[in-house]
Amino acid sequence: MEHLARKEIWRKDEALKHVEVLLEAQNARVLLLESQARESAAMIQERESAFMEERACMATQLDARRAELRQLVPPDTHTDAEVMQLVRNLNVQISQTATLLTDTFTPVADVEAQRASAEFTEAHERARHAVGPIMAELLESINHEDDPILVHIALQTDIVGFAAGIISSWDFQHQSNSTFAGIHKQMLKSESQNVAGRWRALTRQYSKQRLYQGRDLSEGFTTQLAERMCDILTVSGARASVADMRHSVFRNFATVVRLALELQEVIGEGVTSRDLDVVVVRMDDVFVPETMEDVYGGPGTGEQEQLHVLCTAALGLRRCEKPADGLGDELQVSTLVKPKVVLETLVYELGLVEEDEPDTEDNMIV
Hints:
The chain is built from 12 helices and 6 strands. By secondary structure, the protein is mainly α. It has 2 domains: about 1-70; about 80-350, no CATH class. The strands form 2 sheets. A 3-stranded antiparallel sheet has the order 1-4-5. The longest helix is centred in the first third of the chain and has 71 residues, at about 1-70. The protein starts with a helix and ends in a 17-residue tail after the last helix. Residues about 355-365 have low confidence and may be disordered.
């Protein structure tokens, strides 16, 4: 019995030792797994840290690239709606200025003597260039004392043309316009709209800086506008001088010039993703109701054939842009603001010219 007891004790000791060996092996396995887990965690943390550093580096590079792109093609500073409102504001100011001048219109006592003067001859020649020969002849030949409506139309037309000249100019040097405009048109055939628009904006900006070095041009333009108004009034039979206007409507002229200069900068330098152009309809162009508006809105306008434009009374605005997949000089053109025009038929409707008069240069509207 004692021998059996000792044997059983030995067997249990052996079993216990075996269990202890298994436990040690499991503990070693647990320790190994814990070590591997710690190594994996460290590796993951190291990779996460490297990923975060790489991500931060990529974000920095992306920001730098975005900044470079903004310098190359900065976002437009004005929407179409904002530019349209600027054009409408300018048109209102032009109309008010022409009305103010017309309200003060007083013919001289001896019109014939004035028309015989050298001053009148020079004013007439400039007026022919500004508002066209037909309008100049009408201003000279008609008595405006009872109803100076034609004087008002001529004044408004001249201001519109003067403002359009400022807005459309690249650097206010007349000889530069055709050169720069030709380059820009050629560039649109090969480059994207944004590239061509950015070139336009930089060319206008730096060309003006080089020529004028930040000088304020508004005073000079205001005086020029006053001189043109004097020409129209002189041809119409009144007496006018820039000196007299400085005490009356000069402030209105300055406002027109300021708005025109603002539009010149906005359209020329602040918009690159498309081209925005002010529109003036040329004398004798066929009236197109889809893109023009008859300022007097006579009955039947648009129903008759081949109505012709006498002059433009309010600026229009047109949007031109090259489609993303456009080829060559293909452009999408849309009218944002219709230019307001005076039709040639108005002079007949007002009885200023008889329709059955001989077709002479002085009375024919063509």
